[in-house]
What we know:
Elements: E1 2-10, E2 13-20, E3 29-36, H1 40-47, E4 57-58, E5 63-70, E6 82-85, H2 95-98, E7 126-128, H3 131-134, E8 136-137, H4 144-147, H5 153-163, E9 172-175, H6 179-190, E10 196-199, H7 203-211, E11 216-218, H8 225-232, E12 238-243, H9 250-256, E13 258-266, E14 291-294, H10 301-312, E15 322-327, H11 331-341, E16 348-352
Parallel strand pairs: 9-10, 9-12, 10-11, 12-13, 13-14, 15-16
Antiparallel strand pairs: 1-2, 1-4, 3-5, 3-7, 3-16, 5-6, 6-8
Helix pairs in contact: 5-6
Amino acid sequence: MKIKGLAMLGIGKIGWIEKEAPKCGPLDALVRPIVVAPCTSDIHTVWEGAIGERSDMILGHEAIGEVVEVGELVKDFKKGDKVIVPAITPDWGSTNSQRGFPMHSGDALGGWKFSNFKDGVFAELFHVNEADANLALLPEGMDPVSAVMLTDMTTTGFHAAELANVELGDTVCVIGIGPVGLNSVAGANLMGASHLFGVGSRKNCCDVARAYGATDIINYKEGDIIEQVLQKTNGLGVDKVLVAGGTVDTFDQAVRMLKPGGAIGNVNYLGSGEYIRIPRVEWAVGMGHKSIVGGLTPGGRTRMEKLASLVETGKYDPSKLITHKLEGFDAIEEALLLMKDKPRDLIKPAVVINW
């Protein structure tokens, strides 16, 4: 059987292709997407060639789906189940998973399979490895359009706050308040940040940042962001910096606004550049206890279930991120190009597919 999917044909090129349908292993599942969303990672991958050449690789790693088939050893899922499909689907028996880093199962970034080295979710049918460990049931009554944000945007943004170990009362600056950074704001707020600065300029993003707990907006168009942060903190700087946007030069700014003993949590996908710049003096000539941790978000079933519980209990509302709702399988291409072109009213598009 052939399936249709939107693929990366090569660096800078996308197109619709047909492929043989994936096969279901004994521990695995085949899933039909019912809601998908494009990601800036897809843009870095295709138009910047950030992870190298890929040919005829189906794109996409954010999906809510319906189970079509499960392997004979799958216990907790069955045909017809509506499921949250995390962007990161580790091999849970790998040594890196056992070391506590399932997102790097097999090798660095190895838990990121969809649209990295395996066909993604922008297809009529896609494969999920280790279904019992990597799928989560969509809770009864939960909006699948909102829930698709949990698969990547929410978990990735929250992970920045986890990487920096945000604590009660911390003063925190989030650099970049696109969809991931907005979730970094939400995550830092849930973890107890007090003064919470969001760096951005687009009105709709700034409004959502405030709704998610930002106390101040730092507009980079209104002056140097380091000076603005230092002014708001009486020259002390912040306890934690969460990097969810920018370039390899953004770390220079993050280090300069950070207190000694502070931490930087990075979840930004650095799509270009060879080296990261760290200012020597402001890093206290290498001895300032200013730590920098960059990490790929955790994946898997338990992570998705916990995030869904925050939505169910009203602690967090992912629907604020959706600014463009499209319908129909063929609309995936339009949504992807929206993510590439980034109109000013865009935060995140989602595509609803009615089969």
